[in-house]
Records
---
Amino acid sequence: MSIIAIENLEKSYHDSEIEVRALNGINLNFEEGEFTAIVGPSGSGKTTLLNMIGGLDKPDRGTILIGGNDITRLSSRKLIDFRLRNIGFVFQSYNLIPVLTAMENVEFIMHLQKIPRADREKRAMELLESVGLGDRIHSRPSKLSGGQQQRVAVARALASRPAFILADEPTANLDSQSTRNLLGIMERLNHEEQVTFIFSTHDQRVVEKAHRIIVLEDGKVVTDRENIPAIEP
Amino acid sequence: MIWSVAWKNIWRNRMRSLVVVMAIALGLLGGIFSSAVLKGTSDQRVREAVSRETSHLQLHNPKYIEDQEVIYFIGTGYKPIAAVLDTIRSVEAWSPRVKFIAMAGSANAGIGVMVNGIDPELERQVTEIHSLICDTCGGWFKGGRGVPVVVGQALVKKLKVRLNSKIILTFQDMQGNLTGGAFRICGIYRTSNSVFDEMNVFVGRSEICTLLGADSLLCHEIAVRMKDPAETARVQNLLQSTFPDLKVQNWKEIDPILGMLNDFMDLWLYLFMGIILLALGFGIVNTMLMAILERTRELGMLAAIGMNKFRLFLMIMLESVFLSLTGGIIGIILATGLTLYTRHTGINLGSFAEGFEKIGYNPVLYPSLDPYFFINLTILVIFTGILASLYPARQALRLRPADAVRNE
């Protein structure tokens, strides 16, 4: 059964008097455990699609069923709670809270879920160890490299035990080594713990690792194919 | 955790927050200390007026209040009233007075005065005029030749007389005939109210009754001093119901300006502090708006990952409250220290003494503040923080997470 089912999704933006069709009748299904890349040129609708799936924006038409709930019909209040419990986010610019340590950043989302302190500390520790930052738990984001910050962001996204993780250009600000490290961690989590990743990217190295590649152009799906990931030499 | 994040957030831009905190602290220091000086001055004036001029309660023939004629005395004499006053526990002392307007004259000058015919021993338990006679200024109805009179220093200057000088008091007797007598100045008092000192002379009640041609129980006024001033209203009601033919007044009614000063002062202090806090509030709003603008992406991220609007609002409100409370506490501590210090040493405005005394104020000011004022002020500071957070929080809540997370 699909964890995400999208039907006839349409979204337009009005820039002055010009109407821009960001999404134009998208139909997609995502299964549990997928490792999917959404690619396409700038303005093709990748970010808009991720925003729609993440409940950060509402479509003009169409439905998005996540775990049987049509999130396009949820009130703003219910949608925030839905995001908290079902969706993990990894942003291009990491977006960690600078005044908190790596550990506290991961814990914060669990605090929002009202998880007891001892449990959230234990899970935050495990997650940071799983992304290779067990020795940097007390470091603030300013003391971490870009790659390390993005790994904290992945740990944070996993902390709430979401149904899937949406990553918008997660490697856009990373160097090659950090990109390789991050991809390795995401692949391992996907393979070993069946974490579902859906990410938009321009980065060919990331695309090559995806199991499924969806190509968007002018707000439409032009290609949706399986991919056999490249093996690291 | 949101409390801890909010606290840490205010120290992100340390210098900016410190500037706001210091502005609040100094604003409050100035405001509180000014309030303490005003309150201290007002309290001092009220305290001195009650203990020297009005006492807590006074009983009169109602007609005497309208027209201070010698014929409007308390019809029953003071004995029946004194008997009731002696049974009331919260009454500390009482003093019957024969009181009328007269002309005081010396060889050099003449001036209208209020003659207070008193029983010296009873009067000294009600007012503290007796204690305001300096060592070289005689004493409270002590020894000497002739009929003693205690006068104020301002009157002595006006009449150009001195201790042991003779003055003549001229007035109407009970039959409306002009009469008078010679009195020897046995004591010169000085309060902080030069107008009172110039106006009031104290003579023995029995001597003045003889000159008036009146019964020795004659009295126009009975002044009552309370053990517990908080009981004043209750005792006033009790006396009024017991003696319906008399008019029982408390010190606020006797001296309405003094009463208004006392009542208005508290309101004024809160108004004064409110204006200062309002001005400081705008500074906080500005700081919070800058903080929100700088953190657009982060706030978008928080909304995206599932921080609801209430928590987002709470976080911003707490930041604003912490900012104002930090400045507030520093300001309150500094102001308390300064108030306590100057309360101990006094602020001597001796160079303005004459002006102060003309309006009844002591030129040495002793700042004071009610502890409740600090509690209420802390609540006001928190309220200012909450108020100052509303607009910035509204701006933050209006952010669209999809746009905010990509904000550069």
Note: The radius of gyration of chain B is 31 Å.
---
Amino acid sequence: MTSLRHVLLLVQSAVCGLVALGASVFAMASHSPLLGLLAAVSGMLALVPVLVAAGLGAGWGWARGLGIGWELLLLVSGVTDALVLRNDDMVAVVVNVFFPATLIWLLLRRPPTMRTWSDAVSPGGSTRS
Amino acid sequence: MLLFRLWLASTRRAALGPLRWLLVFTGGVHVGLAFGHTAGQPFLSLLFVVSGVTYLVLAVLRRDRRWWRPVTGLLLLGTIVAYLALVGSGREQPDPVGILDKLAELLALGLVMLPHEGSPRGWRRPLRWVIASAASLGLTVATSTAIWAEDLAGSSHSHDGTSCAANHHAGPGTVLRPAPCTVTPAQQMAAEGLVAETRESIAPYQDVRVALAAGYRPTTPDGAGVIHYGTAPAGRGSALDPRHPAALVYVRTRHGAVLLGAMYQMPAQGQPGPDIGGALTPWHYHTNICFSLPGLFLSGLSTPFGQCPPWSVRVTSPDQLHVWTAPNPNGPFGDLDVTWARRLAQS
């Protein structure tokens, strides 16, 4: 489960990175500094899941809190998007609702550190995915 | 036998981790896709059967065999690359099932690459962890970028009822309303009448300052310099009132904005536009527009995963119909010829 959490965070980061990439292209095409700023913010936000994954791997205590906070934000945004704006197509629901919900569950149920980085045996049990 | 092994594995909870579930999911999807491609693409169907069954077999086999991870990883990588090749060649469209299947395969590949209990310990384990993480991140970025690129460029591969409407193509996130394939003389006359009325009504807006004074406001321009000036719903007449179209379309040239035409829009999302000229005048709507909430400007197109930039929401537009009063090579109702618009912008 630790590995699943790690890979989910990486995939989520890549998917958020795509938003930043798209926003950058759109900003360049439209020569809009405002959109450029949005692209920069998107890029920085896309790094949050990687930071959380790296922090959990390195055993930094704040990474778990940051991860839970970030995923909660994504979950609220995803649920609002699906229920209020009716953007409830299958892919959007999986990526914007199911992924954050799963990650919150994984972040809450496991110790904050990722012991597979070290030689120590994980106190949470097997590190098998 | 396969189903029995699956059942047996499922009874041993510890043995059926997320990786096995992901393999079972993607194997099931591949077998299902094989049935869908039997008639049109028998060879592809056979490949789906082979890959699907292989995934299911790998899911039930013990993972402590030395070859299991390399073989599974190569199969996952192979199917991801094959999908991208198929999508890139236009034989497949990036649909929700395909995108979800790729996400499952990317997750599974990430899990396969990460170190496990059998991996060598010491300094090599964290190194493998870092390399596997970087590879997983890079592969997901590359795959999703390729899917989006094909989605955006894929209008030429689209088959969504565009054959009846000449010079109209459903693009990524653009849905064409079905239109009858015929054009009656009455419809031809009605369409020509709409163009003439629109041309006459929007003539005063050749000067963009007049449009601004009338309450039209610019949205974000696209790459070709084409920009829509929209007006608030209160300022509009009925959906097809040529005196008050929902938007005016300009192209920014070196000598100022040049009026290209008008855009009509239905008052609410989901209402099909009235049939005016049959196949000549199909209405369309967009499903992938991102609007920034502070300032209400167009902030981009949503990704294939339905995501927009920060502080933006994805909206589905009401039905729209463009009438080009400038000499668009695709005709007064056809898609705007972007090359022509770009040339105009540079003139």
Note: Chain B touches chain A through 54 residues (CB under 8 Å).
